[in-house]
Amino acid sequence: MSATVQSRRPRRRAYRVLAAAASLATVGALAAALPASAGADHTGGGKKRTVDVQLLSFNDFHGNLQPPAGSSGQVTEKQPDGTEKKIDAGGVEYLATSLRTARKGNPYSVTAAAGDLIGASPLLSGLFHDEPTVEAMNKLGLDVTSVGNHEFDEGAKELARMQNGGCHPKDGCFEKGKGGKKGGKGKKFEGADYPYLAANVTDEKTGKPILKPYWVWKHKGVKIGFIGVTLEGTPDIVSADGVKGLKFHDEIETVNKYAKILDKQGVKSIVTLIHEGGVPKSQTYNYDCDSPGAGDGISGPITDIAKGITPKVDALVTGHTHNAYVCTIPDPAGNPRMVTSASSFGKLYTDTTLTYDRRTKDIVRTSVKSANRVVSREQAKAPDMTSLISRWDKLAAPVANKAVGYISADIPGRGAGVPESPLGDLISDAQLAHAKSLDPEADLALMNPGGIRSDIVYKASGSEGDGVVTYGEAFTVQPFSNTVNLVDLTGAQLVTGLKQQVSGSNQASPKILQVSEGLTYTLDMTKTGADRVVADSIKLNGKAIDPAATYRVAMNAFLAGGGDGFAELGKGTKPVVGADDLKAFNDYLTANSSADKPIAPPKADRITIVK
Length: 611
Hints:
Blueprint: H1 3-8, H2 24-32, E1 50-58, E2 74-78, E3 84-88, H3 92-103, E4 109-113, H4 123-126, H5 131-140, E5 144-146, H6 156-164, E6 196-197, E7 201-203, E8 214-219, E9 222-230, H7 234-237, E10 246-248, H8 251-264, E11 270-275, E12 279-280, E13 298-299, H9 301-308, E14 315-318, E15 324-328, E16 338-342, E17 348-357, E18 362-363, E19 369-374, H10 383-400, E20 403-406, H11 422-438, E21 444-447, E22 468-470, H12 471-477, E23 483-490, H13 491-499, E24 514-515, E25 519-524, E26 533-540, E27 543-544, E28 550-556, H14 557-560, E29 573-580, H15 581-592, E30 607-610
Parallel strand pairs: 1-4, 4-5, 5-6, 9-11, 11-14, 14-16, 21-28, 25-30
Antiparallel strand pairs: 1-17, 2-3, 7-10, 8-9, 12-13, 15-16, 17-18, 17-19, 20-22, 21-24, 23-28, 23-29, 25-26, 26-27
Helix pairs in contact: 5-10, 11-15
């Protein structure tokens, strides 16, 4: 462990908070405890008026302790001659090395994240409710993070456990304790050394934030406040059980509120960690986001949010969209302000220099510099992370290494980069097959694209052999434990549901459903809104959809609840609840493939795209 990390360890319980105890009174007490001399001008005593503070940041790690497979584990780099190069990146062994190397020679260094560190994780972390990832974040020296939508996948109580520690209420302790026993008497999970910030998430009954709204980093008279928020629309993309009893508030109003509180307490330098993001014009991580003008290279929700957040905030670290960008978006006063995002899965980190003025206690905005750095796999692995992975891998191995199917080539999913992916088709077919085992009259299946978390690659990830799909690999693709539900929808409802892919809350950033074999239609991207779905092109097994007819439709519980902006799909009747989606997928792979007859990648030709 590096000296930097060791110096942080004694602080761990100093900012541990109970999930529902972060009231303004608590915040005020924290501020009152700050030294009166902090941030004072010491130029007469030999100190420079300004000092450079290194802010290292990342986002959307999603429990990817091991290097992500396939295209999910690559970043695209623009070369000097204009060509593009794919680089293998990510894995916590390399992320830890990158961050520790970056900190060298920087006495003022703070590391922050913008949410979704856990949730939708590969089996190595997800099987253990993401305890391994929290442990890894402790070891690599994370100082603070905001919550993201996936921090709520298992509900507020489980998020509180991630912060405060303790064994899982159902599964108990995963590692043996001193007595050599597992379960409730095993080794206790210690929780996060770093604070989770949730300024815009309050308890419906008390009206108070469920976790700390902000945290102040202090080092040798320098202090920087961090405000953490997630997207206001979190309830739309998380299961109802995960957000039960919680209220999610406007991002701009919340940040501005706490920025005022920090300012009154003498904290003039402020960074917002916000789990909301944008869509860059280029997928190369090192493109110029400020060409031709400031912030011209990005669009999406974060642009309006950045323009509305008070000038008291000096920088925004963002996430959620899994994109990479370093942009200068002017604040409401017209001053330049850095807005950054470091892709996902630990493939990049952002290195930002904040010049702190000891006299004003504020950041000299014109001197802020920032760049995304690749977490290369050509550097040395961090030994403590290798040890951590090995320890948890031994516990996971009996489950993870079981073969569930065989494939003849890579089957791209999340990394396909197109509206309809081969893996999306395969998963939809698997869900329809499972639905037919519940009701032979099942007609079709729909799958939300955000539920497909990775690709399935032909090359062996371990000792299983090429073309073998293991339980662990399948889990990485579908880690949510959603049930496969079967409901009745009218043809008119089905058409409306398909139109909601590109309208309403999905108009700015379409969510194209993956469809089972037999359902076909045309998506005309030259049009706008709901008109992009060509209604008279929608057919099932070659026959036009009858608006008055009833169709038996399979989908996961998230979609059946109207998630992802598909309110019409949430109106289904005569529900039947099947097994979880991972079991449906594994059963389909097992039943339809063998070493001699592997599954070939579907053609992904069910949706005709007009550009």
